Amino acid sequence: MAYDQTPRHPVTVEPFKEYLNWSGQGVPGLGYTFDHDIAREDATMLDSMGPNADRENETLMTEADGGVIALRQMYLREIAAVQAGRDPKGTVRDEAANRLIVISPEYSPNKPKEPETAGAR
Questions:
Q1: Residue 74 pLDDT > 90, yes or no?
Q2: Does residue 92 form part of some domain?
Q3: Same-domain status, 45 and 57
Q4: 59-84 in b/e burial notation, b at 16+ Cβ within 10 A?
């Protein structure tokens, strides 16, 4: 089966560099191969999963289910907070407290500490 060879056109937002000099005919050169049949593959994969599980009537009770139970309870609690007009957990409205935290690339929690040299303090 041949793949769809309809010309692709860039979207109206800032195009990828591969599209900047593209004439709109054929497929732009991306520097790597690209499977044009991804949507069909995705649909096949979704179809193979079968129907959605019935979450309303399932029974969760083992210790392994504890995380799922806690997550669902948190979702319901935070949905209720939003419905009541409150912010859900994790919402930060103070701009000063909502800054980007940059971790130095040299930092690694698993990196062994450098031995101190004699006389260095």
A1: yes
A2: no
A3: no
A4: eeeeeeeeeeeeeeeeeeebeeeeee
